[in-house]
Each structure stands twice: as C-alpha cells, then as structure tokens.
Amino acid sequence: MKRSIYIILFCLTFGHSFAQIIELGGEIGYGSTYLHENIVFKEFFGPNAITDLGSGFHIAFNPKKTIIFINSGIIYILKGDNNYSFNNIRVPLGIKIEPGRKAKFIVGGGIYLNYLFLPEGDVNIEFKKTKRDFQIGGYFDSGFKYQLLENWNLFFLVQVNYDLSTLYMEENPHHDGSRSNSAIRSYDLSLRLGFSYLIPIKNESK
C-alpha cells in the first residue's frame, strides 16, 4: 500500500511541474477475469471467468495543451464468484491520446502495480502456498469522452489488463507420474464509466 501512495505523490509532484491542465475524476468498472498461463480472448466469456468489479479515482496531466495525457490513479478491484474472491488495489501509470474537441476518441495504455490482499473463500492450496502479493502488469484501453460542461467530461472505455508477473504457481501432474509447474497470471476485460474535471494550471511569469 505504501508503494501505491509513493507513486501517486510522485505523479502529483512531477506532473504539476509541467502540466498545463490537471484532470481529476472518478470511475466504476464491470467485467470479467480469468486465471491462466496465457491470454486467450475467448476465455473472458468462458465458464472459468469470474466477475471483475472496480471503482476509484484517476488523475491525469496534459502537457502544453496537446492531445496527450499522462495518467495515474488508485483503483479498488474485487474479483470473484460464489466460491472465492480477491481484493486488489491497483495503481496504473500510462499515456492516453484524446483527439477531438467536444467529443473525443480515446486510446491509451501503460503499466500497473497491483497489490493483492485479503483473498476470501474457497481458494486452492497451491494459491495459498505460492501467491504473490504484488503483480506488475500492462494495460490498454479505448473509448470515448464527451464534454458535458466547460470543464466537466463523461467517458466510457473498454480496457484489457494483463499480469506480466506471476500471480501463483500451479502444479500439473502428467500420465507418466512426473509433475511440472505453470505460472498463473490474471487477465481482465472490463467496461469503465467515469467523469473528469479539468483544472487549468496558470504559469506565473516574473
């Protein structure tokens, strides 16, 4: 948790030093997650997928009034089904491009640090023994933003998240009696709805 706070403080300090606009906002998300060795898109809609719910806030910096925003935030994510659930705190750091004026198309991506805490329910023994509390991953998203008022915006995004580091190790028995281990990661597909408020930063001249 301390790492997440340090990242946000760094972004606030670094971003304010060059930003022309700071964007603050909140968001909620809904989607599906599955645990596997590799990302397979159809698994998001398969029987092994579990529900992914998220909410949090984001902050973005727009240098020199370009279409590029540098963004971060803190997101709480609950993944699970009727048998078990995982509680997560995620801190993304990425770049998004927003061409347009009142109506904008958004495309972006970046990396994230995920902190897995308080797994609940009927999780398997291998998960309990080998799970890692922190994961590093990547993401990309795409969607639309619409300006409701002068500085208020509403946005809708489709986002894919994928762990780059291992969540836990799974043991695989073979017919010849041997065993091998698979590095299991988490993959998410979610729809995100949120709002943002733009704060212009005035450069003071001497």
CATH-defined topology: Porin
Number of helices: 2
**Helix percentage:** 10-25%
The secondary-structure element order is HEEEEEHEEEE
Biggest sheet: strands side by side, in what order? Answer: 1-2-3-4-5-6-7-9
Q: Beta fraction of the residues?
A: over 45%
Instruction: Please tell me the total number of domains.
Output: 1
Q: Which structural traits does this protein have?
A:
eight-stranded antiparallel beta barrel; 206 residues; Porin; 9 strands; elongated; 10% helix; mainly beta
Question: What can you tell me about this protein's structure?
Answer:
- There is one protein chain.
- The chain is mainly beta and 206 residues long.
- The chain has a single domain (2-200), classed as Porin.
- 10% of the residues lie in helices and 64% in strands.
- It contains two helices and nine strands.
- The protein has helices at residues 2-16, 125-130; strands spanning 19-36, 50-63, 68-80, 84-97, 103-121, 134-147, 152-163, 168-173, 179-200.
- An eight-stranded antiparallel beta barrel has the order 1-2-3-4-5-6-7-9.
- A hairpin with a 5-residue loop joins strand 4 and strand 5 (103-121).
- The protein starts with a helix and ends in a 6-residue tail after the last strand.
- Mean pLDDT is 85; it is low at 4-10 and 12-18.
